[in-house]
Specification:
The chain is α/β, with parallel strands linked by helices. It has 11 helices and 11 strands. The strands form 2 sheets. The protein has a 6-stranded parallel beta sheet, sandwiched between helices. Strands 3-2-1-5-4 form a 5-stranded parallel beta sheet, sandwiched between helices. β1, α1 and β2 form a beta-alpha-beta unit. α1 crosses α11, α2 runs antiparallel to α3 and α10 packs across α11.
């Protein structure tokens, strides 16, 4: 069995599922994948996206559930979580070093716990393997990219009301602009860590994109689309998604675009990753959060061909 206690909304869930699927294939394992969605209700409501959002995609190779763990495994996981919580409150930047130092010992006990960056998890001769962490690096699943195109295709047909938008996207040099507000704005603690993409970032990114592709057609996606329309001075002819599409339809609209200006959001990360355009231009903020682990190797979410833009709101903390 390969087990994961699922955290976060769709973008996070996709990283976690993809990592487990790739690990299973890498070592040609027969283990069943178990995803435990029970803790999501502690983070928020289903209306806010804290529920099983993978259910709307072409994924049929996992089971939902929470299998029993041995007493030893429970003690080890509890201890590890306690140490991570302690370090998180003391100095979050030390988590990467701590986890890398102790990873080998945990792996030998069937526990794979890595919060930031990439770690090459070995094959362990254990009946049950327990995964914890975000796994926000394409290196975890680079061996199954083509399979993920299929897995992360929505089960549902395109919504008819979006037919014109699909045509606009497909028949132009479309550029997906992803703007996340929500808790990045409303929650002061989250804002301090994650509010990277200012208005200035998007204006700089558009200016750069205008140099790189001919006749770009900008398509804006956001969790606060009305604010974007009222407050951002985007080029004439910019298209705005309605903002009320189900998350699976929104993702499909986004990855149908040919080029991308993304925010520091795992959801927008997957939109560019799932694009079928091999010549896509991707512009991203030069820091994923308002602090950096790069000096320690702790962030590995960037892809090599991205163009990075400073927003003016970034800090080193």
């Amino acid at each position: 069995m390969i087990y994961k206690e699922v955290t976060g909304r769709l973008g996070n869930q996709m990283f976690q599922y993809a990592t487990l699927k790739a690990y299973k294939k890498k070592y040609n394992l027969d283990d069943e994948i178990f995803l435990d969605f029970s803790k999501l209700k502690l983070l928020g409501t289903p209306e806010e996206g804290f529920c099983n959002q993978l259910v709307d995609f072409c994924i049929d190779d996992y089971k939902s559930g929470k299998p029993k763990k041995s007493i030893k495994t429970n003690i080890l996981i509890f201890y590890y979580k306690l140490m991570i919580y302690y370090i998180l409150n003391k100095n979050e930047k030390n988590i990467y070093k701590y986890q890398k130092k102790h990873q080998s010992k945990m792996n030998k006990n069937g526990i794979f716990y890595f919060s930031y960056g990439y770690y090459d998890f070995p094959l362990i001769n254990k009946k049950n393997k327990y995964f914890y962490g975000d796994f926000e690096s394409p290196k975890y699943f680079q061996n199954i990219k083509e399979e993920l195109y299929k897995s992360f295709t929505p089960k549902h047909k395109k919504l008819k009301k979006n037919n014109n938008m699909y045509k606009e996207i497909e028949n132009s040099n479309s550029v997906c602009i992803s703007i996340r507000r929500g808790d990045f704005i409303s929650n002061s603690e989250i804002s301090k860590k994650h509010l990277v993409c200012t208005e200035d970032y998007y204006y700089k990114a558009i200016k750069e994109m205008n140099k790189l592709i001919k006749n770009p057609r900008y398509v804006v996606f956001s969790d606060d689309i009305e604010w974007c329309k009222k407050n951002l001075n985007f080029p004439k002819g910019t298209i705005y998604e309605e903002g009320n599409d189900p998350v699976w339809e929104k993702l499909r609209l986004m990855y149908s675009c040919k080029n991308f200006i993304i925010s520091n959001s795992t959801f927008s990360w997957w939109a560019q990753y799932l694009s079928r355009n091999k010549d896509k231009v991707v512009i991203a903020p030069s820091k994923w959060k308002n602090y950096s682990y790069k000096e320690d190797g702790g962030f590995d979410i960037y892809e090599d061909n991205w163009i990075l833009i400073q927003s003016g709101n970034e800090k080193n903390v």
